[in-house]
């Protein structure tokens, strides 16, 4: 993992080179990245708390608004700091996709082993649920909970003294994983039923679905892995009270 985690130090390399004019590239500073991380954490709590917990928006409508908020956050961070999302997605992309698929299978096993099987709708309704609740919502979760915090931390640290020290790479990886766990906790606390010991389960899962992005610094791996979790939930445990929040009586469909 030591070789795949290594981002540039001092010099630009593909995936980290500024994609914007110098004025925006000047915002590519540790403080700026950490400000975006803090803003992302605030958003991760506010969106489920306001839209799902307080307003009770219908589940599939909520997923669309949530995915749009995650996309806006990611695009805003990249544009403001002058980083290229396209270049980030090109970094070790074959390895990122392969790891994403491996950990998607591992995430699916988590669902099968932790939840009882329940009936699911058939036909077009089931296909729509697989695409919307499984792939779209799962990918959005993977971006917000793993890819975004991990990449922001590495972007913030890549020119710092920490990265130039022996063990700096491992320290950066540990901080990035801690940021991902914190984002996962903050997000789930936005849902009423996760303000309990139930919170431990997504935190454990984050250690699984974060690996592809942590190992490659490519944002696509974690969303693939997390989508595997949600697709399995739709297929195996459609009426789950753990995966696919928000969970409200009569809203499973």
Largest sheet: none
- Tell me the Rg in angstroms: 18 Å
Q: What number of domains?
A: 1
Number of strands: 0
Strand content: under 5%
Short note summarizing the structure:
The chain is mainly α and 253 residues long. The chain is built from eleven helices and no strands. Residues 1-14 and 249-253 have low confidence and may be disordered.
Q: Can you describe what's shown?
A:
With 253 residues, the protein is an all-alpha fold. The protein has one domain. It is 68% helix and 0% strand. It has helices at residues 22-25, 30-54, 59-81, 85-90, 93-114, 123-157, 161-164, 168-189, 200-209, 211-216, 221-236. The longest helix is centred in the middle third of the chain and has 35 residues, at 123-157. The N and C termini lie far apart (41 Å). Residues 1-14 and 249-253 have low confidence and may be disordered.
Structural key phrases:
disordered C terminus; 11 helices; 253 residues; mainly alpha
Helices and strands in order, then pairings?
Elements: H1 22-25, H2 30-54, H3 59-81, H4 85-90, H5 93-114, H6 123-157, H7 161-164, H8 168-189, H9 200-209, H10 211-216, H11 221-236
Helix pairs in contact: 2-3, 2-6, 2-8, 3-6, 5-11, 6-8, 6-11, 8-9
């Amino acid at each position: 993992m030591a070789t795949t985690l290594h981002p540039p130090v001092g010099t630009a390399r593909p995936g980290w080179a500024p994609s914007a004019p110098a004025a925006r590239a000047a915002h590519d500073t540790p403080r700026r990245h950490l400000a975006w991380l803090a803003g992302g954490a605030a958003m991760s709590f506010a969106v489920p708390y306001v839209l799902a917990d307080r307003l009770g928006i219908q589940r599939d409508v909520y997923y669309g608004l949530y995915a749009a908020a995650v996309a806006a956050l990611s695009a805003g961070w990249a544009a403001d700091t002058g980083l290229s999302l396209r270049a980030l997605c090109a970094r070790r992309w074959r390895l990122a996709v392969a790891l994403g698929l491996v950990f998607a299978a591992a995430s699916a096993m988590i669902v099968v082993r932790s939840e009882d099987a329940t009936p699911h709708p058939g036909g077009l309704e089931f296909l729509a649920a697989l695409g919307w609740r499984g792939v779209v919502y799962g990918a959005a979760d993977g971006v917000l909970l793993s890819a975004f915090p991990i990449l922001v931390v590495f972007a913030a640290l890549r020119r710092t003294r920490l990265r130039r020290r022996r063990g700096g790479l491992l320290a950066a990886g540990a901080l990035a994983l801690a940021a991902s766990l914190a984002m996962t906790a903050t997000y789930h606390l936005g849902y009423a039923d996760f303000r309990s010991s139930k919170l431990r389960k997504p935190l454990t899962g984050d250690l699984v679905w974060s690996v592809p992005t942590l190992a490659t610094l490519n944002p696509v791996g974690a969303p693939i892995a997390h989508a595997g979790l949600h697709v399995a939930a739709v297929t195996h445990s459609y009426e789950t009270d753990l995966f696919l929040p928000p969970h409200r009586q009569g809203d499973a469909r």
